Amino acid sequence: FETMAGVGSSKLRLLGRDMKQVEGMLRILPGAIKDSLAGGDSTFDSQLYFRRLTTAALGSTILTTSAIESTQDVITPLLSTIASHSLSLIADKQTKGKGRGKNVWDSPDGCLMLSFNCSVAQGRMLPYVQYLVGLAMVRAVEAIVGDVDTGIRVKWPNDLYIQRPSQCGGKDELLKVGGIICSSTMTSNGAFEVVVGMGVNVLNDKPTTSLRAEIERVVGKDKCEELSISRESLLAEFFNRFEQMLHQMNSENSFASFEREYTQKWIHRNQRVTLANGSTATITGLSPTGYLCVLNSLFRRALMLNQGCPP
């Protein structure tokens, strides 16, 4: 079921798993969106997506568009309006996609780009949302390909990489395939509404590589075609897992249930880094506050790093 809307020069289409969800979202969306009804020509296949989606709420109502400046800039101002509801904005292309800091996310055709809202009960858990998103995306890829290691890994704090084993005994090759950005606002009841922005190279082989290319490299062209890798299937599988994982993290008020798997799926195992004082350290895991924990080789003690490290 769908109704159409446009924001500025971008044309959006509002779709839901059923008519009640669309009608409910229409009642709360601001007039700036509802008063700009127009056609949309996104290539996102909503029917394929909804057939694979099994969540209770997350991902059940979506906006799609062929092009927009930034999905994050559209969803963020809506937080106070859509709190306690789920809304995702999926774009075929972004012209000013957001990255970490002042970085800009490139958006060639075939890249999955979206922003969506979710709720976090405790403020101290906010840093872990990006970790959970990355891990859920790794799980989603694994759900599609089965018991095959495609090399997809998380890079602390908010990136997705492909790790190709070295063929000559040197360092593994690392290629970035995704990025995550999160922003949050406290609600009147003390909880937090979070906008998660994400870009993943699903079908586009440039500027680095794509998930489809890496899956084909591992399983072969025929098997890869059987798996039907798509933005729609990957996003549905992501939401199917992230919803359950977020509920567990909120219920336990802890990332502990996921930390072991997270560090098994990251690129930093025994990685050595150079600190600001010139000494070297080895990454050993996550600190209790979500920072990187390293063992300093000069003083032989554990330190915490609050900034990203090189791949």
Walk me through the structure.
- The protein has 311 residues and is an alpha+beta fold.
- Helices cover 31% and strands 29% of the residues.
- The chain has helices at 19-28, 31-34, 46-52, 71-75, 79-82, 126-145, 211-219, 221-227, 231-252, 256-264; strands at 2-7, 10-16, 61-65, 88-91, 97-98, 104-105, 111-120, 152-155, 159-164, 173-186, 192-201, 272-274, 280-286, 292-296, 302-305.
- The strands form 3 sheets. A 9-stranded mixed β-sheet has the order 1-2-3-4-7-11-10-9-8. A 4-stranded antiparallel β-sheet has the order 12-13-14-15, with no helix packed on it. Strands 5-6 form a two-stranded antiparallel ribbon.
- Helix 6 packs across helix 9.
- The longest helix has 22 residues, at 231-252.
- The chain is globular.
- The model has no long low-confidence stretch (mean pLDDT 88).
